[in-house]
């Protein structure tokens, strides 16, 4: 009975612990957030996704037994909705994930959310190395951008539209990123929105956004670039897709890997 009570205390402690405490031994494979907390409901997973799930940067991947596996196999397992990519401590500063088999008690809503996100991440991973589609458009100031504009540059692209709340909310952080790279002539920040030019001009009068903004047909974004959600960020190098980060903060980290500031 005494041992059972200790087991319950351990479960309760794990539930409320997001990371190992300062005095806890930081051994390889220790979860940075308890899987029970992550899988408790959809918001638990979404919070974990925002804080710990960074799949557009370099990371190490392991199976359920902590054996190294390649990234493609890892993401394919994630996309089934049967596994959680659990962030764990490593032997060094590298980001590490292991596959964690979802318990049978996991709700369908949580499992479906994990599968949906996993499918998107697998799709993004498979696009790395693809050539960006041909284009030639003028930005709101009349400057023409085309595939030649991408040569010998790292291009940070954002796809959005004016009435996308999350697209607008991240603009201050993106402006900070542009300012950080202002002296890097080899880095170009472009945004493509499917609003009309006059709408974008009026929007930009009241909302500061430092990307070069280009009005384009929605069909170009959805059919040529194959973007289905907004905002979407893509990092290109010499016209080839390098990374498709999930949100502004992951974009910051991914760009730092591609083009270190220091």
UniProtKB/TrEMBL annotation:
InterPro entries: Redoxin (IPR013740), Thioredoxin-like_sf (IPR036249), Thioredoxin_domain (IPR013766), Thioredoxin_ResA/DsbE_sf (IPR050553). It comes from the Bacteria. Residues 126-260 form the Thioredoxin domain. This is TlpA family protein disulfide reductase.
């Amino acid at each position: 009975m005494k041992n059972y009570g200790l087991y319950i205390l351990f479960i309760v402690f794990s539930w409320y612990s997001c990371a190992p405490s300062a005095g806890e031994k930081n051994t390889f494979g220790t979860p940075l957030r308890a899987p029970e907390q992550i899988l408790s409901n959809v918001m638990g997973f979404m919070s974990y996704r925002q804080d710990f799930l960074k799949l557009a940067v370099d990371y190490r991947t392991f199976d359920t037994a902590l054996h190294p596996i390649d990234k493609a196999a890892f993401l394919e397992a994630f996309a089934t909705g049967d596994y959680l990519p659990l962030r764990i401590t490593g032997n060094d500063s590298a980001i590490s994930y292991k596959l964690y088999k979802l318990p049978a008690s996991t709700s369908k809503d949580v499992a479906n959310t994990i599968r949906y996100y996993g499918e998107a991440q697998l799709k993004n991973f498979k696009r790395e190395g693809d050539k960006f589609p041909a284009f030639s458009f003028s930005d709101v100031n009349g400057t023409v951008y085309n595939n030649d504009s991408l040569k010998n540059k790292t291009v940070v692209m954002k796809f959005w539209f004016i009435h996308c709340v999350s697209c607008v909310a991240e603009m201050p952080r993106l402006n900070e990123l542009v300012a950080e790279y202002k002296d890097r002539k080899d880095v170009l920040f472009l945004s493509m929105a499917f609003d009309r030019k006059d709408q974008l001009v009026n929007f930009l009068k009241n909302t500061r956004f430092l990307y070069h903004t280009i009005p384009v047909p929605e069909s170009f974004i959805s059919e040529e670039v194959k973007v289905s959600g907004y905002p979407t960020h893509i990092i290109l190098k010499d016209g080839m897709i390098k990374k498709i980060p999930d949100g502004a903060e992951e974009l910051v980290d991914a760009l730092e890997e591609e083009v270190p500031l220091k």
